[in-house]
Design brief:
Layout lengths: L1 H16 L5 H29 L9 E8 L5 E7 L2 E7 L4 E7 L10 H14 L1
Antiparallel strand pairs: 1-2, 2-3, 3-4
């Protein structure tokens, strides 16, 4: 019973101390919330794009390497089962350039190593 009466007291007291929101206080809060939501959407979209979470996963096929040629064209080395294929990909089509007889091994790159190489190149220039 004490809890209930304290709860009623809190409900009656706090609205008396709260100020009615004005246009000057609600617009900055609204804009800040909007900017935070847009930033969160951008970060999550970038994360999904970079980690390929949006792509379908398949155990039989995987992308071994990608070489961008222009903004819309790239060369992709894929592995299907025990075969490797070199594909040319553009905005309009996907073409088989060559089916490779020997497997090409691409070394896995470590992000830390790649970033340190990038930064060391930047310091030299």
């Amino acid at each position: 019973m004490k809890f209930f009466s304290a709860f009623i007291l809190v409900l009656m007291v706090f609205p008396a101390f709260a100020e009615a929101p004005t246009l000057a206080t609600s617009i900055p809060t609204l804009l800040l919330s909007l900017i935070a939501m847009l930033a969160l959407i951008f970060v999550l979209a970038t994360l999904v794009k970079k980690t390929n979470l949006g792509q379908m996963k398949s155990g039989a096929m995987r992308v071994v390497s990608v070489l961008p040629l222009t903004a819309r064209e790239k060369v992709i080395l894929i592995e299907v089962g025990d075969k490797q294929m070199l594909l040319g990909v553009s905005a309009q089509s996907v073409n088989l350039l060559k089916e490779l007889d020997e497997k090409v091994t691409v070394p896995e790159t470590d992000f830390r190593q790649t970033m340190s190489q990038f930064l060391s190149k930047g310091n030299k220039a």
